[in-house]
Design goal:
Layout lengths: L1 H15 L5 E12 L4 E7 L5 E6 L4 E9 L4 E8 L5 E12 L7 E13 L1
Length: 118
């Protein structure tokens, strides 16, 4: 009986132990011209994975994420405000399954600077 209780405690402890979520950051810089549309792929996502805009671009007429249902690829779309030129910044978080640590997640932070030229 004592061995059974010890075994159950060990199994319970191991079952509750998960590795901390991993985070990594990609620094991206893209240049477009006034009136152009920037399209940037975050990759293909499984149904349980998602992406979101954490810090929205300040000088955008359009700054959004959209998923292609045919291949589950998520794209970021950016269109600057009319007649805006300069730098803009957006931060996106991709919440992915962690292939290295099953049961954990991997957050990929994309910090993108968009340079809009006249």
């Amino acid at each position: 009986m004592k061995n059974l209780i010890i075994s159950l405690c060990i199994i319970s402890f191991l079952g509750c132990h998960t590795l901390p979520d991993r985070k990594s950051t990609d620094i991206v810089r893209r240049t477009i011209s006034v009136g152009d549309t920037l399209i940037y792929s975050l990759g293909s996502f499984h149904q349980s994975e998602r992406a979101l805009i954490h810090k929205q671009a300040r000088h955008a007429a359009i700054s959004t994420l959209d998923q292609d249902s045919s291949n589950m690829e998520i794209f970021y779309y950016y269109v600057p405000l009319p007649n805006y030129s300069g730098e803009d910044f957006v931060e996106m978080h991709a919440l992915r399954a962690d292939d290295e640590n099953p049961g954990s997640s991997h957050t990929i932070i994309t910090e993108m600077t968009v340079v809009v030229n006249e």
